[in-house]
Design goal:
heterodimer; A: about 600 residues; Multidrug efflux transporter AcrB transmembrane fold; Alpha-Beta Plaits; five-stranded mixed beta sheet; 14 strands; about 45% helix; B: about 375 residues; alpha+beta; 2 domains; four-stranded antiparallel beta sheet; 12 helices; 6 strands; disordered C terminus; protein-transporting ATPase activity (chain A); transmembrane (chain A); protein transport (chain A)
Chain lengths: ~600, ~375
């Protein structure tokens, strides 16, 4: 019963089992090729398998700020934490948001765990300081560059492709060099833009109900800290400033920490955020808490991005005083610096006294403007967090867990294979091949997903994969049992295989939908490591469908072309007699009603 | 295999029929008793919530010679809270201290590390804030509710609302049993347990869906075929999938058992074991419920359906008439009961007799079908 009849009965999928098989092979080949091309030949390991520290921060609800915990704020917070942690000089730390109120910080082993935790935990501090002097990021080779506005000495500026400027006049030089897109003469570079009083003509997206500028001007009485005299920079700060190296992230991180830990009333030497400039800064004149709000907006008239900020009443007074003091000073002393965690994020120039609300202009990109607005608005983290979970795993323990997971997987797989062989005999090989394909797909896709979406294989993920063995095998069982039922009804093996397929397919699809649904819900409702588990479960459920359609079914069709199966050899697993089949008496039964699930 | 295979064949044809549906009162009773026990355990004894739900710290040491007692004393002194110490397979210790804030747990970690002669950072630790578990539980519950709603809708579309409802009830049964077992045995509830329980949702339903698919297939010709009542058809579907159900459960349990074995044995607990344990319990309950509860429930629910009722009446009338005419068997009266001897369309008489005598077939129905000789095989499964 071979070839001649085959043609006749080759309707539908049965006729060309080779096609889906080839498709499956191509798919595997392409994915594997992609895997080797991308260089990620093993799945990325999570902290619990590779060792390291994983910190989960949960946003705390604050009284009065009911809606503070939202997606935008979470993202901002994550990026700020990212900057802080990676400011340590380790760039592998990974900061992600998870769910709607968690931020997960994964720090690989080898980083200074303690320091990293401190960084994650501390609340950043925003402040406005006067710029006393400014300079290039690199320490000058000679020690002669002490005074503030002297010295036309040109240094090469690494990390900056702009032409070297006169050190002291750096920001102005930058302005000239940049040919600012704005028609406003005072506009400067992004970091050293200009601050203006928010004039009436400014089409600000957030007009404050009270006219802050006027109000601020009215009461100007409170002189708080006495401004340090121009030349009054302590000698040790000057020395530190001269020695300060802002060119490498590590050096910057160190300098930032020093500034951040210093007393708010101290004069400090600080680095610019991008390592192109350094400053000597006066005490904090206006703390970040005095900023009421900030917004980035596009000014269509000048075709530039501007950042507008509003001060509180107290802040407005302080800011008015500061700007009044520095507005007519020579550069760079007409600048004030916005510092975050001891780092200068922006140092705009001031040309007039400003109160109430201010506007910072410069050649911002949209992103820069929004970033700055966020920093101003939130001071630091928009939301306060608490450590919900801190997991520290040594590489040894991680390795052991990985090993245990793999062993469990191997044992589970072996047991399933043994059972399938015992129960389905030769038919079991189809199942084993399908399982092998499944394993291959899973491995390759997991490896690819590492670099692609940051998937990391964790212990729960391995667990999910092992559990998935059962789900996958079940699809084979559904199909095989259907075939056997058909054989028991007295059909020939060949017919049975084709007749069984539509019903089995229906069952497999329905149950896989349920399974997938469970995985998706689990994924989105999950906290922590549960996500990895759900992800793998969902992935394998999808793969299950691929494998059953492209491999199991065609392979079965292909195998039945061999007499061994077609004749129901006793080891084939399709032996009619062993299955207790009924010989078909009275010939063919009437055509059965097609299987349509129907409401009865 | 062969014997099981043969049994499968007989079950499939209905020669050997275990009358799951007929005896549903019994299953309901058993189930009710188990549920009451579970509920009692849950309410009376309560769940033993792991450290993740209370806040605290778990420290894992490298292999060490320090005794359990020493470690406990050290941990309790430095933390001021209760500590549990467990020696793992490779001579390392797991020290669990509950009710710590992160400040104290850092101190405890330092103290323990000092005791062991390690750098603080060499001591593996998991520090859990008190809100972690709450957050997790809340998320899990939300997820569960969403899932149940989605699945009910989906099953109502794919099958019908009665089946969706029955599946839902079976699912709740599985969850309650699992939680009950946890309460009664006193297993620790950890995030791994939550994962496991949530997975049961999918798994148990998967099994139920496969059974329903078959039942649905069998009963889809209701009305056209007047030989069997709805209950009988459902029972047949159930019998035909028993082998598959058992197979599936075995295949699903094998890897889970491996996980459990490795997780408990090699790692001495932790995530692997927790997931596997709850899965194991849940899977067992799931297999039971998809056979013993879900389908019988559908049958009972179906009694409210006019079409099915009318159909059953027709079948029974016809059957009674035939019985009178042929003066064969009698007591097949019970509406849903006469299920067993579904051997009718077997042209082979001897086999039919076998079936009738099979102990499993000893339902009330008797041999209604056999001698009626309406030989067409319309009722056969396809």
């Amino acid at each position: 019963m071979a070839t001649p009849r085959r043609r006749r009965s080759s309707t539908g999928a049965q006729g060309r089992p080779l096609r889906p098989l080839l498709l499956a092979l191509t798919l595997i080949a392409v994915l594997t090729g992609g895997m080797f091309l991308s260089g990620a030949t093993t799945p990325r390991l999570g902290i619990d398998l590779a060792g390291g520290t994983s910190i989960t921060l949960t946003a705390k609800d604050q009284p009065g700020k009911g809606d503070a915990v939202n997606e935008a704020n979470m993202k901002t917070a994550a990026s700020i934490i990212d900057r802080r942690v990676n400011g340590l000089g380790v760039s592998e730390a990974e900061v992600t948001t998870q769910g709607d109120r968690n931020i997960v910080v994964n720090i690989p082993r080898g980083t200074n765990e303690k320091q990293a935790r401190e960084q994650v935990g501390t609340t950043a501090e925003l402040g406005f300081r006067k710029v006393l002097t400014a300079g290039d990021a690199t320490p000058p080779p000679g020690a002669g560059a002490g005074e503030q506005d002297t010295d036309g000495k040109k240094d090469d500026k690494p990390a900056d492709d702009k032409p070297a400027d006169d050190k002291a006049d750096k920001s102005d030089g930058k302005n000239d060099a940049e040919a600012s897109p704005s028609n406003e003469p005072s506009t400067q570079g992004a970091r050293a833009g200009a601050v203006n009083a928010k004039a009436n003509e400014t089409p600000s997206p957030s007009p404050s109900p009270t006219d802050g500028a006027d109000q601020g001007e009215k009461d100007e009485e409170t002189p708080s800290d006495q401004p340090p005299a121009e030349g009054g920079i302590p000698a040790d700060v000057i020395k530190r400033f001269e020695q300060l190296d802002c060119t490498t992230p590590a050096a910057r991180a160190k300098a930032n920490r020093m500034v951040a830990e210093s007393d708010p009333g101290e004069t400090v030497a600080a680095c610019d955020r991008e390592g192109v400039a350094k400053y000597v800064l006066g005490p904090i004149e206006v703390p970040g808490t005095d900023v009421d709000g900030a917004n980035a907006g596009f000014d269509p008239q000048r075709a530039i991005w501007v950042v507008s900020m509003e001060f509180s009443n107290a802040g407005s007074k302080k800011f008015a005083r500061v700007t009044d003091e520095i507005k007519s000073l020579a550069p760079p002393q007409n600048q004030f610096a916005i510092t975050l965690d001891g780092e200068v994020v922006s140092a705009p120039r001031v040309s007039q006294r400003i109160a109430g609300s201010a506007e910072i202009t410069g050649s911002f990109t949209q992103e820069e403007a929004q970033d700055l607005a966020n920093i101003l608005k939130f001071g630091a983290l928009p939301i306060s967090f608490e450590e919900a979970n801190v997991l520290t795993i040594s590489p040894t323990l991680g390795g052991e867990q990985l090993k245990a997971g793999l062993i469990a997987g191997a044992i589970g797989l072996a047991l399933v294979v043994a059972y399938l062989l015992f129960y389905y005999r030769a038919l079991g090989f189809v199942a084993i091949l399908s399982l092998a394909a499944m394993g291959g797909f899973t491995y390759v896709i997991m490896s690819l997903l590492g670099p692609a979406i940051g998937f990391a294989l964790s212990l729960p993920a391995i667990c999910g994969a092992i559990v998935a063995i059962g789900i996958t095998a079940d699809s084979f069982i559904v199909y095989f049992e259907r075939i056997r039922d058909e054989v028991r009804d007295g059909r020939s093996v060949r017919t049975a295989i084709e007749r069984a397929w539509p019903r089995a397919r229906h069952t497999i699809l329905i149950s896989d939908v349920v399974s997938f649904l469970a995985a998706v819900v689990l994924f989105f409702a999950a906290v922590g490591s549960v996500q990895g588990f759900a992800f793998v479960l969902g992935l394998t459920t999808l793969l299950d469908i691929v494998v059953v359609f492209l491999i199991t079914k065609p392979l079965t069709s292909l195998m039945v072309q061999r007499p061994f199966f077609a004749n129901g050899h006793r080891w084939s697993g399709l032996d009619a007699k062993r299955l207790g089949a009924q010989p078909p008496i009275r010939g063919r039964r009437r055509t059965p009603v097609t299987a349509e699930p129907k409401e009865a | 295999m062969s014997r099981f295979g043969e049994l499968g064949g007989k079950l499939n044809r209905g020669e050997v029929a275990i009358n799951f549906v007929k005896r549903r009162k019994l299953w309901y009773l058993i189930t009710a008793v188990m549920l009451v026990i579970s509920l009692g355990g849950l309410l009376g004894k309560g769940l033993y919530m792991g450290v993740e739900f209370q806040g605290g710290a778990v420290f894992t040491t490298p292999p060490t010679t320090i005794s359990v007692e020493e470690a406990r004393t050290e941990a309790q002194e430095s933390s001021g809270s209760d500590a549990r110490v467990q020696r793992l397979g490779n001579d390392s210790l797991r020290i669990t201290v509950t009710g710590l804030d992160s400040e104290t747990s850092n101190k405890t970690r330092e103290a323990l590390a000092g005791k062991l002669g390690l750098e603080t950072e060499q001591l593996d630790a998991e520090l859990v804030g008190p809100s972690w578990g709450e957050q997790m539980t809340q998320k899990a519950l939300t997820g569960m509710v969403i899932f149940l709603v989605l699945v009910t809708v989906y099953l109502s579309i794919a099958f019908e609302w009665r089946m969706a409802l029955a599946a839902l009830l079976a699912l709740l049964h599985d969850l309650l049993i699992t939680v009950g077992v946890y309460a009664l045995v006193g297993f620790e509830v950890t995030p791994g347990t939550v994962v496991g329980v949530l997975t049961i949702l999918g798994y148990s339903l998967y099994d139920t869906v496969v059974v329903f698919d078959k039942v649905n297939e069998n009963t889809s010709r209701l009305g056209k075929d007047t030989r069997f009542t709805f209950a009988e058809l459902a029972n047949r579907g159930l019998n035909a999938t028993v082998v598959r159900s058992v197979n599936t459960s075995i295949v699903a349990l094998l890897p889970v058992a491996a996980l459990l074995f490795i997780g408990a044995g090699l790692l001495g607990g932790g995530m692997l074991k927790d997931i596997a344990l709850s899965l194991f319990v849940g899977l067992a309950a799931g297999t039971y419920s998809s056979i013993m509860i879900a389908t019988p429930l559908v049958v009972d629910l179906k009694k409210t359906d006019a079409g099915a009722k009318a159909h059953d009446r027709r079948v029974l009338t016809k059957r009674a008439k035939a019985a009178k005419g042929q003066d064969v068997d009698q007591d097949d009266s019970e509406e849903t009961g006469g299920a067993t001897a579904l051997s009718d369309d077997n042209p082979d008489d001897s086999l039919t007799d076998d079936a009738d005598e099979a102990p499993a077939a000893a339902g009330a129905g008797g041999r209604t079908g056999r001698s009626q000789g309406r030989g067409r095989a319309a009722g056969r499964r396809r």
